[in-house]
Structure formats: C-alpha cells, structure tokens
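Ligand-bound model needed. beta-D-glucopyranose.
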Amino acid sequence: MRKIIEKEFALNYLNKYGSQMTVGNGYLGVRGALEEEYPEQVRGMYVAGIYNRPSGSTSSELVNLPDVTRFQVMLDDEVFSMQAGKVHAYERYLDMNTGELIRKITWESSNGKHYQLNFYRFASKVAKHMIAAKVEITPLSENTRVKVKTGIDAQQTNFGTQQLAESSLRIFDEKLMVGEYETIESKQRITVATKVSEKGIFTAKNRQLMTDVEQKVTANQTFTLEKISLVKTSLDEVDTEFPNTTYAELKLTSEAAWQDFWAHASVRVESTNDFDQFALDFACYHLEIMTPKNDFRCSVGAKGLTGEGYKGHVFWDTEIFIMPFFLYNQPEIAKQLLQYRYLHLKEAKEKALKNGYKGALYPWESAFTGEEETPEFAAINIRTGTRQKVASAISEHHLVADIAYAVCEYEVATSDAQFMVEYGAELLLETAEFWISRATSRNGRLEILDVIGPDEYTEHIDNNTYTNYMAHYNVKKALEWNKENTDFEARAKIFLENLYLPVANESGLIPQDDTFLQKDWINLDKYKAAQGTQGILLDYSRQEVNELQILKQADLVMLFYLFPKMFKAEMVKENLRYYEERTIHDSSLSKAIHAIVENRVGNREQAYQFFQEACLIDLGSEPHSSDDGLHAASLGAIWLAVVFGFAGMDTSGELLEITPNLPNKWKSIAFEFVWKGEQITVKMMPNTLQLSKSTKTVLELNIYGEKQQLTDILTINLERKDESL
Ligand code: BGC
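Prediction:
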C-alpha cells in the first residue's frame, strides 16, 4: 500500500505530519504543511545546498524559501478552515508509490453549506525543479462564489530569521509570476516562478506575489485550479526554463521514476506485523527524497530536507547511517556523498591547522562551504541566563575516522579503483595524518586525549575506545592505499604499533574510555521511559551527567556494529548488556544499531524489540518528536537493521557474508543488493536463502560460514543452521 496516512485532522500533530508528508526529490523538499493556515504550522521549502549565515550567528542555516504551497480558499466569503464549521469526512495520505500528497475533505461551513475539497501536490522526481499542485472544489449544497488566493510568499522565515532579500517581482504574459531573491550573506540567487491555470488578479505586497482567482461554481460542479511552480538557484549548473506542462503530464513521468525506484530499492518483508513493512517503506522513501543526486557540492542534513532542525547541517550521520542505503542500491550516490567530503578537504585541513594538528579535521557540523558550522553555544538556560558551550566542534573528532571508514566501505563494495586514485587514497592519507598528529605520547604509548566519543553525554575524556579503534583503522587503511609514501609509512607504523587500544578488563568489560568504569551509576528507568527527550538534563546538569555512567547513545556498541569480527561474540554480549543498561537512547542514532548487535549475538527477540522502537522514533504517537524534521540517520539505520541486522549481510570480510537471522514474526524478506557491480536479488525465508543475479560471472560468497558460488541462481536450505539458533 505504501501510504503515510493521517486519519483525522489534529492541530497537535500538524508539524509531525508536516515532516512525515514532505514531498521532494533530493534537489528540493517541501514540507507537508496544509494549504490553509493554522496556528504554529511550519511551512517549509528547502533546496539542498542553499544556506545562509544570519548576521551575528556562527552557523549557517538551511534557508526556508518562499512558499508556493499556500492556498487561501474562500467559499461565499467564508474562509475555509478545518477549525471552523464541521469536517464530515477527512483523509490525507502521502502515496509513497507515486510521491503524491492527497487530501480530501467533506466540509460544512459555519453557515451550513457543504463542500468537497481535494488537494493534491508532488515534487517531480524527474524535473527536479518542479512542484505541482491542484485544488478541486465542489459545492455540494448550492451555487457558490469560490475565491482562491495563491502565489509566491516570501514572508517565510527560519523561525523569524529572514534570510532573503527580494530582488525582483514580475508577471509575464498575465500568467507567470516570478520572484527573485538573494540570500543575505551567502549571496545565492533564488528564482521562484509559478503559474496557475485560471486567470486572476495579481497583487504584490508585503513580500507576497499573489493572484486572486474568482469563479461562480454551480452546485455539484467541480472547480479545478492547477498550480505549477519552478524553483531554481545560482547553484544550478544549467538554467531551466519554465515548461509548458500540466499536473497530469508532470505526474506521469514522475510516477514512472518512482516505480523504477521501488522496483530496485524496496525491501519487502512478510511480517505478521504490517507496521514493519510500512516503517521500511517510510525509511526508503525519505532517504531517497532527502539525498541530492548528481551534485557532490551538497550532502544530507541531519533532518534531510524535511525541516530546520540542526539547521540542515551534515554530521557523521551521512557516512555511517545514510550512505550504506545508497552504497548497496545506487553506488554512484554513495560516491557522490564521499566526493562532497573530498571537495572540502581544503577546509578540513584548515581546521586541523587552526587547532594545532596536521592533516584533515572535518567540521563536526558542515553545510555548503565545508567550514565548521557547529553553533558555539547550546540553547539558553532561561532560569540562569547562561549558555553552555557546545564542545563537539572542539573535541568530537571520531567523525574524521567515520568518513575514512565510509571511503573503505565504498571501495570494498565497488572495487572502484579510479575513485581511490582520484579521491580515496588522499582522503585516507589526510585523515590519517590528523590522527597521527592528534595522538599524545603518555604512559609509554600513544593516547588520544580529551575527546567526545559518539556518546555525547560523556565529554572531554581520554582514550574513547570507539575513537581509538577507528583512528587505528583509519591509519591502517591509509597505509595500505599510500604504500609509495615512505615518509608517511614510517610515521603511520609508529602510530599503529603504539596507539593504545583498550581491551577487556578482568570482568570482561571493555572500558568506554579511561574513566567511565570508575564513575557512579544511577537507575535510568525513568529516563529510558521518556527516551529521545533528553529529560535527564532537566534533573542533572551536563557536568553531573558527565560524572555518571550514562550514555546518550551507542558508543562501544557502534564499534561492535562497524567491526562484526573484531570481538568475540561472548564479549560483545557481555558488554552489550552492561552498556545498554546505562544507555538512555536519547539520540535517534542508537536503537537500530543496538538491534543489529543484539541480533548478531543471538538475542533475536530483543533485537526485534529495538528495531520496532527505532521505527517509532518518527512514526510513534508522540506528537512533537519530529516537528522540526525527521531523523535522517535513524531512517538510514532502520534499513541497516533489516539488511545488516536481520538479513545478516556482512561486508567486513574478504567475501560477502550472509548469515540471516529473521525475527519470528517474519516469513520472508526480499531485496536487491549491489555488490562489486553485480545486482544480487536476495530472498530469505526462515529455512531457505535464495540468491540470483542476471550475469553469469561467478561470485564467491560466504553463507553461514561456508564458501558458496553464485553464478545465476543459488538456493540454500537453512533448516540445519536454524536449529542451532
Ligand atoms: C547525536 C549525534 C548526531 C546528531 C545529529 C546528536 O544528538 O548525539 O550523534 O550526529 O545528533 O543527528
């Protein structure tokens, strides 16, 4: 069915659905705001790469662009609003199969007249600059004077911050409205053009270029208004003319492109719980529309193009959580995401230098320029008036190795030697140089001091195990890819031999960092019950949290996830239990990763439980959790949990390994997986694994620990294996 459905209109959920029902295509995203205005409704349209740094701010923001989605509808002089009159029937859904958002309302006005109002909208998956909308109004009681006001509304702001100067407003041929704008600081030019299908009266006032269309509509006749809009910016390499097209024409090509996407990218799960399939489709749909295509100057923000959370900044979320979905479906997109990092090697080197290091230190938060964008201060404490400094830009350095890890992951999956020559080897070298300069000689070994690991509730600690192992891997891989660089080789070898890699203590526990295990522990039940809300910070100061064994998110468990063979299963199990008890999962990057690691150690029930909870991060009943955008990394991790968790794909060895371990509720799972340029169709049932591909080349695989060869079709009976689970 692939539909995101809103069954009834509720003000409290307006912005959550606004995020969920975003339409887009990676070039732009348009929030699913309703056509008419409601209190606190956040309307938003964003174009990848269009940021602006407001004066006095240290970070740029993904700009909320002039709006084309708003329609004010007047029916015999009464403004249509679902807060007035009576709603007799309501349905709204985003059809993920076609990318179209549809709303149908049977409404009775306050003076007792009945109407049918239907609204449609989509962003073309083919013509990336185009947004199409349609309104159908049918008076059901009597003839009605229908007035619709719509156009280009540049009163849009980022929560009050105006980012655009208006350069020009024009009408062409009594039809086409064109607004031109420029971002105030970054000087990007934006053009928004729109055309409605009926003649109206134009006005330009208060940053709004509008048309008023008025018509007498006979009872039971339908008045239809189409609106075709185009958005382009100075980042575009080719100019796009306003096309002469209709809603239906645009829809036809866009729909075909969606069909093609689902044919290859979908993961089909037969589960007794339909929600599993829905959550997966939701994740795939959003990953697809949040990710820029054919433009390596842009990457994916922490909320994609669905809202203004995290100001649209790019984090490690992209390489570790989002990129794999593309790597194993559309590897060229994964390459493009890595090229974005390569493009900003210069800024990363400048940041390293500025901080007294060598090599490349990527910004913790990045946007268009590749400079550090992390806000200097967190939100103000309104009781004390103080602001806490944000330490991530200064100390959260694991991102450097995360990017290097993604480069290696890409190389392993694609064997793209050209990429390594052009970008990969240098990226590995510069990131490795950073780690070599970042380490300190202490206690007769090299240590990495004063860092923040993935767990952001534990700051300024020494030898975060995740960071140290990742740095080690980064340098090791850099060495493999830069063999001719003898100068680097000497330094790299010293680093690799001397870097401290924490190991398990006598109780079998691997310390998260030098001091973690010595800290006190508190019962976290209350905070776990409200996970995602950061409620702990209301009861304890950050400083106090820092002195307790409290994790915001998977930390050591991230390392277990990324290196499935590095630690023995028993040890993983033990540490997983210990650290999970201390993890609130206040970050959305946590649950799905725990699901994967739980599944690997055989805790299938627990894994499924975590998977389902991860799916609820954006799809649960909590009304405001996704108001400022969806959790992009979490959506990527839902896909990971299925493909790398339950389906048991493992790319960390010489050969592709497959060790399925499906939840009891699942009868089958099927998906495509691109590996070394081969498109493999995978189908798993509890007792059978079926692999097929269309070429005749022989692919060696490791299935349940046994070498197998896949030519075109391979069917493996798993009954025997299943018994041991
Ligand atoms: C998490 C980070 C993450 C960021 C953006 C933070 O709350 O702790 O790991 O990168 O959100 O999603």
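Residues 302, 310, 315-317, 454, 456, 552-553, 587, 589, 633 surround beta-D-glucopyranose (CB under 6 Å).
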